[in-house]
Amino acid sequence: MTNKKTDVVTELVTLIKKGNAHVPLTDAVADLPAELRGKKVRGLPYSIWQLVDHLRFTQWDIVEFSTAEGHESPEWPAGYWSEHITEVSDELWNGALQQIAKDQERFFKLLKDRADELLQPFPWGSGQSLFREAVLIADHNAYHVGEIIVLRRLLDAWE
User: Fold this and answer.
1) What CA–CA distance (Å, rounded) separates 13 from 85?
2) C-alpha 126: how far from its chain's center?
3) What percent of the chain is modeled with pLDDT above 90?
4) Of 69, 86, 106, 128, which cross-links 38 as Cys (Cβ 3.0–4.6 Å)?
5) What residue stretches are annotated with the DinB-like domain (predicted)?
């Protein structure tokens, strides 16, 4: 017999990591030519880099909020979006992707360590729970990964 709470945590981790019905971030950015990272497409307000950096920052914010009381999130939306830059160095790009992976691992540990409290509202916030924040990460990532793929298609960089 399996532990239902462990099963839920496993499903949440899989959803965040692999996207289930959605392309995971790692696949969405794989083999993206460096010169396209900061390129904007007419009619869209952001580049692939800005989307990746937005995912990095927003996920970090959610993990920090989920960890303990006292975390102060920045003003929405300005605090969650970086300025447009046209050239994104390998260091900046890889650093953002590594931070996303690192924060996901931090969040997965939190899910596993607090599996008995998944639906219990945090003592801080306005009713958020660890389960809700996990679904938020998965939902938010899927939305913006879809935008990355659309941008890649518009830039003729997606098969």
Assistant:
1) 32
2) 21
3) 91
4) 86
5) 26-148
